[in-house]
Amino acid sequence: MEKILTKLEGVYILEPKVFGDHRGYFMETYSERVFSELCLNTRFVQDNESFTAQKGTLRGLHFQKNPMAQTKIVRVLSGAVLDVAVDLRKGSPTYLQWEAVELSAENKRMFYIPCGFAHGFLTLTDNVTFVYKVDNLYAPDCDRSIRFDDPTIGVQWGIGDPILSQKDQNAPLLRDSDCNFVFED
Questions:
Q1: Is the distance from CB of 171 to CB of 63 less than 8 angstroms?
Q2: What are the φ/ψ torsions at residue 34 (nearest 5 degrees)?
Q3: DSSP summary character for residue 90
Q4: Is the N or C terminus of the chain more exposed, i.e. has fewer CB atoms within 10 Å?
Q5: Domain residue ranges in the chain
């Protein structure tokens, strides 16, 4: 597996080794040993999966605030998404900066997003199956969203009128949220 650096420290694109032949392919999506060799020593406790039927659906920007913040590894099993991580750690050199990567069933890339970052994705195709590992259990009391189009962040989604859930339509701007992430050197 290859770990590709991004402009956001701690956020990585992961490219697994894919072995294919006339029958199909095989790849390792997670190995504790390989992740340790890549200095990604995260203990994952939950796997999640979502399905999105329609292209142009935006999910995000989501996070769990402390003490239940989550590190995630996300990937796509079918279809394609524009996946985004936003640094919400006050005092970070990259505070409010974001990174976007296309994840697809075809490119098989994964995105490693540590605690302190919001996450969201826009479906680029119909019928997207999205999976992710997290290092902390789902905690409804700590579950938060911020507006996908918050002007202080300025994510360039490439779409004017995405399909949104009620939760995402009603999400506050970051300045109105109770996000409690702080950068630690």
A1: no
A2: -65, -45
A3: B
A4: C
A5: 44-176
Q: Is the pLDDT of residue 71 over 90?
A: yes
As a whole number of angstroms, the distance between CA 144 and CA 146 comes to 7
* Radius of gyration for the alpha carbons in the chain, expressed in angstroms and rounded: 16
Homologous superfamily, domain 44-176: Jelly Rolls (2.60.120.10)
CA distance 145 to 172: 7
DSSP H helix total and E strand total for the chain: 2, 13
With 0.85 as the threshold, say if the pTM is over it: yes
Strand-pairing partners, residue 64, are: 143
Residue with tokens 């579950």, as numbered in its chain: 143
Task: Name the residue among 110, 128, 127, 122 with its Cα closest to residue 157.
Answer: 122
67 is written with which tokens?
């003490």
**pLDDT tens digits for 127-161?**
999 999 999 999 999 999 999 999 999 999 999 89
Q: Distance between alpha carbon 60 and the CA centroid of its chain, in Å? A: 9
- Give the residue numbers marked as catalytic: 62, 132
